[in-house]
Amino acid sequence: MFSLLILTVILWVWAFVDISRSRFQNNSLTFIWIAIILLFPVLGSIIYFQLGPKLKKEPRTFQPEFSNRTT
């Protein structure tokens, strides 16, 4: 029973950390996900990990253009 409680807390904290580090398509989605996690800790965390990645922005990629063209 105690191990189930520990796993639940780890899932809950992991969801909060992931939400705080994520960049969503809309900034209000961050607050909506936090509210869902607070209202329904276990179910909200599971739903977030299923649906959350689909709503995130694409990660930035660093693509410098080094051109030595002089005109």
List the helices and strands and how they pair.
Layout: H1 2-21, H2 28-39, H3 41-51
Membrane topology: Multi-pass membrane protein
Protein name: PLD nuclease N-terminal domain-containing protein
Domain Cardiolipin synthase N-terminal: 10-52
Radius of gyration from the CA trace? Answer: 18 Å
Q: Which H/E pattern describes the elements?
A: HHH
Catalogue the unreliable spans. none
Total domain count: 1
How much of the sequence is in beta strands? under 5%
Give the strand tally: 0
Shape: elongated
The largest sheet, given as strand count, sense and whether it forms a barrel, is:
none
Helix content: 55-70%
First and last CA, distance: 72 Å
Which secondary-structure class do the elements indicate?
mainly alpha
Count of DSSP helices? 3
Q: What's the assembly state of these chains? A: single chain
